[in-house]
Write a structure and sequence with these properties.
This protein is of the alpha+beta class. The chain contains 1 helix and 8 strands, in the order αββββββββ. Helices cover 22% and strands 38% of the residues. It is elongated and about 40 Å long.
């Protein structure tokens, strides 16, 4: 379970930092990623609530699809991605970026 949590955190960091690097010259950006269960041979996890939170507390929400992918566009700078528990077996992972 700790391995799943660490994998989710690291994947989120890579996704968010990549989106921030691309969005630095733009007024809005996009966060994309996928959520997988590394304990079951990279099985995609659908239905995970993904919340992108601004430094002012503004929230933009999306959910992973059937293949565990998510995308949220039109986001202002200074956002953070948060993967919220879908079930008791999933731990929360939060990645902050500024």
């Amino acid at each position: 379970m700790k391995h799943l949590s660490l994998t989710l955190i690291l994947a989120s960091m890579l996704i968010v930092y990549g989106a921030v690097a691309i969005a630095q010259d733009a007024t809005t950006g996009t966060v994309r990623g996928n959520v997988v269960d590394t304990t079951t041979a990279q099985t995609p996890i659908s239905g995970v609530r993904v919340v992108v939170v601004g430094t002012d507390g503004t929230e933009h929400e999306t959910t992973t699809d059937d293949v565990g992918e998510y995308s949220k566009s039109g986001l202002p700078p200074d956002m953070a991605t948060e993967l919220v528990n879908r079930s008791p077996s999933l731990l929360e992972a939060t990645t902050m970026c500024r």
